[in-house]
Write a structure and sequence with these properties.
The complex is a heterodimer of chains A (254) and B (251).
Chain A lengths: L15 H4 L2 H16 L6 H17 L4 H7 L4 H13 L4 E4 L2 E4 H27 L2 H10 L4 H30 L6 H32 L16 H24 L1
Antiparallel strand pairs in A: 1-2
Chain B lengths: L5 E9 L5 E10 L4 E5 L6 H8 L7 E6 L2 E2 L5 H7 E4 L3 H4 L5 H11 L4 H14 L15 H13 L5 E5 L7 H13 L3 E6 L2 H7 L2 E6 L2 E7 H6 L1 H6 L19
Helix pairs in contact in B: 4-5, 4-6, 5-6, 6-7
Classes of the chains: A mainly alpha (254), B alpha/beta (251).
Chain lengths: 254, 251
């Protein structure tokens, strides 16, 4: 079901990965991430194997590498944290290129970096092959609490509206010669953020009124039930199952 | 003879902070009529509208929709009968796609499957938006969003369509398209507006809500010709607009 271009993360396609029902993909992603997280950090080769598995999914879904790399920017704060760890952690040191680094910190940093990156890439693959509406229906199908599904749905729907409002406020500020030192700027920007919050809050109330007016009684109606065939479950299980094999071997060899 | 689509009598309401917005509103709208509710900002128009489907209650007076009283035990049916189209379509359209949004109301009524699809197509067809069924609301123009907003309540097959400032923020072409849609509908319409030419174009009859009461109830062309009366209620015609020189589709 083509739901239009609901989200920028989505890349339209007709590959086997795109065709899998969203709830199946979601379960598969969750299982994969759990297996990755449960892998001993010293088994370096295992993470290479996981990356290869994801690369296989990306190739099947015909996603170009630059598309994925650009979306990985979201991970940067974690990367910074991971890079700091070798300098901050205590314990026995090793000297690398003239720098004294904590061994424990190096391992911890690697652990965060490797597992985080794999999780992010797996999520990007899911988002790129599943449109937002299908993901919401999947959450509903998987019996995620309705309130959480609704919050997510509204976030998807209103992200653009609120960004638009924010940009209009920015243009309005700058059109009236907004400048000054950092302190003054921060103050004004903070006030704008507050105003934006209140506007969004008021919009929330108006949306709620509109919902009540159309018979909303506390739960979004289930508009479409996604169905999956056994073969689709099996196909989607390939990724977490292969990862599980890698993980088990990693545990036995460490 | 059937009960009027909408019958409001002695409706009064004060907000919890003590501000009284309505002081005894009386009017009645027959089935199939298109009526404009005119009034300056702060006259209580929105407060009145929110009483029509029981969002606000608790004041004095009585509202009946096709004979059924707006009361707690009837709310579900009342909200089906009264379709309110709010001013900002971004408030009205909150689902990820046009299809889901139009389906929201009937689905709440317990309709599903092919009947639900049928409702969605019928409603979107009536506003000329059928081919946009799988689009996201934020990728439509403002005028298109407003028409989809109308479809979201038409899908509930309402007794009466209540439109809050339907012409606001529309360019002239979208404005005309919406007028064509509204004229083509076989449904009672109450249009809240201070766009007087639009009221004249679409509604043979107008109510003036001022100071929390219905100050006037008359044919629109008569009201608009009475300049002193309009001025008294802070209603003004746009520059150069002469209602006497206008042939309207409403008549």
């Amino acid at each position: 079901m083509g739901a239009g271009h609901v989200h920028r993360l989505y890349r339209h396609g007709h590959t086997p990965v795109h065709r899998l029902p969203a709830h199946v993909k979601l379960v598969s992603l969750l299982a994969f991430v759990l297996v990755v997280v449960a892998t001993p950090r010293e088994a370096f080769w295992a993470f290479g194997a996981y990356a290869a598995l994801l690369a296989g999914v990306a190739v099947t879904a015909r996603l170009p590498l630059p598309f994925i790399v650009k979306r990985m920017v979201v991970e940067v704060p974690f990367v910074v944290f991971a890079l700091l760890l070798p300098f901050l952690a205590a314990g026995p040191d090793v000297t690398v290129a003239g720098l004294s680094l904590s061994q424990e910190g190096l391992l911890a940093g690697w652990n965060i970096l490797a597992k985080g990156t794999l999780g992010v890439v797996a999520s990007i693959l899911l988002a790129a092959t599943t449109d937002a509406r299908a993901l919401l229906l999947a959450l509903q199908r998987l019996r995620v609490p309705p309130v959480l599904v609704e919050i997510t749905a509204f976030m998807v729907r209103y992200a653009d509206v609120i960004t638009g409002e924010m940009n209009r406020m920015k243009v309005a500020r700058e059109s009236r010669g907004f400048s000054g030192n950092v302190g003054r700027r921060l103050g004004v920007v903070a006030t704008s953020a507050g105003a934006l919050f209140i506007r969004s809050y008021e919009r929330g109330e108006r949306v709620h009124l509109a919902m009540l007016s159309r018979g909303y009684t506390g739960a979004l109606p289930v508009l479409e039930v996604q169905q999956a065939q056994t073969v689709q479950w099996v196909g989607a299980a390939l990724l977490p199952f292969s990862a599980l094999v890698v993980s088990v071997v990693a545990w036995m060899t460490v | 003879m059937s009960a009027p689509s909408l019958d409001v009598s002695g409706l009064a309401f004060a907000y919890p902070d003590g501000h009284q917005a309505l002081f005894g509103v009386d009017f009645s709208i027959e089935r199939g009529e298109r009526v404009a509710l005119l009034g300056p900002n702060g006259a209580g128009k929105t407060t009145l509208v929110l009483h029509l489907n029981g969002i606000l209650t608790g004041g004095a007076g009585d509202v009946r929709v096709a004979g059924l009283a707006v009361a707690k035990e009837n709310l579900r049916e009342i909200r089906r009968r009264v379709g309110i189209v709010f001013q900002d379509p971004d408030d009205q359209l909150f689902m990820p796609t046009v299809r889901d949004d139009v389906a929201f109301g009937p689905a709440n009524l317990g309709i599903s499957g092919s009947e639900l699809d049928e409702r969605v197509h019928e409603a979107l067809g009536k506003v000329g938006m059928a081919e946009f069924v799988d689009r996201a609301p934020h990728h439509l123009s403002y005028g298109q969003r407003r028409r989809v907003a109308v479809a979201t309540v038409l899908a509930m097959r309402p007794e009466i369509l209540v439109l809050d400032e339907p012409s606001s923020n529309l360019d002239p072409a979208s404005r005309r398209e919406l007028a064509d849609v509204l004229r083509s509908l076989d449904v009672t319409v109450l249009m809240v507006t201070h766009d007087l030419p639009y009221a004249l174009e679409l509604c043979p009859r107008s109510l003036v809500l001022s100071g929390g009461v219905i100050a006037h109830d008359a044919p629109t062309h008569e009201l608009l010709a009475a300049e002193a009366l309009l001025a008294q209620h802070r209603l003004e015609l746009p520059f150069g607009f002469d209602p006497r020189a206008t042939r309207t589709g409403a008549l």
